[in-house]
């Protein structure tokens, strides 16, 4: 795990010392994970306090861990009226992979030392910015700004089971999601967790530790997968957790031989009744707002549909609504889903059933790259759909009740930004600046890999 405690400790020794805040994206968890060859997901920005005399050292460390410094600001420049420093996205995590020093071969359902909800990254941002300055468009009208509002999620479960003491679950079912004629292997896996204390909420992830050892003879490290079920599980009985897993397959750049992902292949071919090592849950970046009147924009590619499925089930499924009388969704959700072919539309029947039953509350838009054409005659990707509906999406995004979620392949982000840049520019708004305000307000949620 990337440990910023030492930096923060140094920064806090003297109240009057010069301290700067680094906004960093793309951090890997540790120097050890820096050597891995599987994708490491990012979940928004991390803010690190750094004393003046350690700035160069910290820059080198961030670079070594794969991070990119987005901005550097003096601490005094971020102080609010009550004298307390305020930063954006205090809940961004970097502890998404196995913590260095923890082995993954422990047996049994023992739990590691209990942790609190902020233990993934020690929180130095105690509260979000209460209010951002008002910007005005070309006509002088005050723009809808991304005011930070605290979501009352209560206690978010984090790291109940750690890599050195994983939960041993059982495979309940392992069902194919790709229809005949589709591309690749994608499975919906359901695990029995009734024998332990594993709890989670929508938008979180769990770690899976595959059996065996890596090329260095060490136990395999965990891989993270977004949870595809609500907190109550697919059977709404609080006894299961589900994943949506694609078998990773690629060509080796030197030998050109086909390589299959270790963990994804392990999961895709598990039989019911098999044991599986589970850690977590982790993640606070992708949590669904509690507001039943919220507006939710979802953009997903492939297995990035996993958290979106959990959101939609919680919002619209009859059994879920019955299980959550305190949360009866009355808002609006829009899913833009990118896949290569029609048989690759994961959970197609579920999605279209919700669309049919709640036409005023749920909108479903597909981008089927190998079957549909964009206006230029090329393949229709998710960013093309965003461009097609950019003006409408921009109007939604300006609403303070709107949260936007992006999950899937990292390559789609640039196209999404380009489309929204053009839409915002029509009102004299710089999208990159506005997006930063959305992130600070916890209304722009990204988990890509």
UniProtKB/TrEMBL annotation:
Q: Where does NADP(+) bind?
A: 226, 246, 303, 339-340, 369-370, 408-409, 447
Q: What reaction(s) does this enzyme catalyze?
A: 2 reduced [2Fe-2S]-[ferredoxin] + NADP(+) + H(+) = 2 oxidized [2Fe-2S]-[ferredoxin] + NADPH
* Biased composition regions of type Basic and acidic residues, renumbered to the chain: 131-140
Q: Does the keyword Thylakoid apply?
A: yes
Q: Region annotation Disordered: residue ranges? A: 92-151
Q: Which Pfam families match?
A: CpcD, NAD_binding_1
What InterPro entries does the annotation carry? CpcD-like_dom (IPR008213), FAD-bd_FR_type (IPR017927), Flavoprot_Pyr_Nucl_cyt_Rdtase (IPR001709), FNR (IPR015701), FNR_nucleotide-bd (IPR039261), FNR_plant_Cyanobacteria (IPR035442), OxRdtase_FAD/NAD-bd (IPR001433), Riboflavin_synthase-like_b-brl (IPR017938)
Q: What is its main location?
A: membrane
Q: Which residues form the CpcD-like domain?
A: 17-75
Q: Which UniProt keywords apply?
A: Antenna complex, FAD, Flavoprotein, Membrane, NADP, Oxidoreductase, Phycobilisome, Thylakoid
Q: Which Gene3D superfamilies match?
A: Nucleotide-binding domain of ferredoxin-NADP reductase (FNR) module, Translation factors
Q: Where is the composition biased (Polar residues)?
A: 92-120
* This protein's name: Ferredoxin--NADP reductase
Q: Which organism is it from?
A: Komarekiella delphini-convector SJRDD-AB1
């Amino acid at each position: 795990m990337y440990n910023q405690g030492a930096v923060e400790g140094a920064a806090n020794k003297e109240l009057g010392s010069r301290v700067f805040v680094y906004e960093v994206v793309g951090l890997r968890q540790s120097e050890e994970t820096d050597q891995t060859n599987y994708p490491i997901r990012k979940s928004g920005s991390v803010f690190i306090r750094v004393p003046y005399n350690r700035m160069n050292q910290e820059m080198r460390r961030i670079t070594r861990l794969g991070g990119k410094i987005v901005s550097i600001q003096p601490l005094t420049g971020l102080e609010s009226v009550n004298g307390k420093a305020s930063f954006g996205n205090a809940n961004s995590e970097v502890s998404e992979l196995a913590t260095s020093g923890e082995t993954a071969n422990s047996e049994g359902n023992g739990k590691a030392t209990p942790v609190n909800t902020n233990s993934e990254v020690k929180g130095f941002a105690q509260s979000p910015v209460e209010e951002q300055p008002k910007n005005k468009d070309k006509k002088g009208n005050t723009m809808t700004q991304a005011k930070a509002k605290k979501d009352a999620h209560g206690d978010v479960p984090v790291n109940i089971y750690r890599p050195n003491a994983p939960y041993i679950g059982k495979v309940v079912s392992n069902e194919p999601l790709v229809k005949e004629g589709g591309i690749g292997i994608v499975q919906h896996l359901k695990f029995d967790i009734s024998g332990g204390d594993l709890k989670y909420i929508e938008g979180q992830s769990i770690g899976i530790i595959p059996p065996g050892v890596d090329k260095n003879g060490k136990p395999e490290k965990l891989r993270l997968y977004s949870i595809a079920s609500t907190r109550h599980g697919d059977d709404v009985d609080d006894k299961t957790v589900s994943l949506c897993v694609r078998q990773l397959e690629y060509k080796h750049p030197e030998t050109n031989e086909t390589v299959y992902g270790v963990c994804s292949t392990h999961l895709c071919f598990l039989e019911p009744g098999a044991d599986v090592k589970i850690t977590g849950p982790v993640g606070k970046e992708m949590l669904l707002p509690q507001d039943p009147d919220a507006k939710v924009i979802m953009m997903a590619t492939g297995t990035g549909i996993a958290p979106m499925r959990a959101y939609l089930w919680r919002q619209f499924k009859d059994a879920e609504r019955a299980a959550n009388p305190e949360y009866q969704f009355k808002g609006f959700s829009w899913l833009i889903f990118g896949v290569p072919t029609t048989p690759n539309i994961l959970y197609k029947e579920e999605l279209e059933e919700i669309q049919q039953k709640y036409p005023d509350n749920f909108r479903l838009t597909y981008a089927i790259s190998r079957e549909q054409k964009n206006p230029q005659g090329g393949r229709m990707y998710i960013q093309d759909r965003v461009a097609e509906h950019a003006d409408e999406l921009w109007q939604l995004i300006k609403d303070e009740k709107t949260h936007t979620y992006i999950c899937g392949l990292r390559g789609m982000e640039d196209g999404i930004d380009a489309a929204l840049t053009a839409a915002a520019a029509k009102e004299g708004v710089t999208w990159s600046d506005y997006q930063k305000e959305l992130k600070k307000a916890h209304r722009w949620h990204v988990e890509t890999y």
